[in-house]
Amino acid sequence: MSDSLRLGIDAGGTYTDVALVGRESGKVVVWAKSLTTRPDPSAGISAALDQINPSLLKKVRLVSLSTTFATNAIVEGMGAEAGLILIGYDECPPGLPSDTHVLRIEGGHHVNGDEKIGLAETALRSRIESFLDGLA
């Protein structure tokens, strides 16, 4: 396989999934799953990666990591007061307890990692400063 690979890692509340996807083909080459380990998710990530042929991992040119830990904590009302930055979303996802601390910012990427819309960095900085001023 001459196609370089992208590694996607998703550490969820229960399971951690990893997938190798061909950069040019966009096809899943192999995937694996393990239990998510808390409070340190690295053991669950390692357990999933251990199921992948090491020769394939050497072809990885991009690693993407996602997790629902922060979102789950907000939805479950756990932890300290927090804000949520939604990049590329116009509406708040259903189920959030409050829309008060949600910052919506223009930007986003296609599923293959290519930029779809540039991140509105100036707006993001301004909105974060306003948010933090409101907590003081």
UniProtKB/TrEMBL annotation:
Q: Which GO terms describe its biological process?
A: glutathione metabolic process
Q: Which SUPFAM superfamilies match?
A: Actin-like ATPase domain
Q: GO CC terms on record?
A: cytosol
Q: What InterPro entries does this protein map onto?
A: ATPase_NBD (IPR043129), Hydant_A_N (IPR008040), Oxoprolinase-like (IPR045079)
Q: Which GO terms describe its molecular function?
A: 5-oxoprolinase (ATP-hydrolyzing) activity
Q: Which residue intervals define the domain Hydantoinase/oxoprolinase N-terminal in the entry? A: 6-87
Residue stretches spanning the membrane = none
The record's section on Pfam families has:
Hydant_A_N
Listed name of the protein: Hydantoinase/oxoprolinase N-terminal domain-containing protein
Which organism encodes this protein? marine sediment metagenome
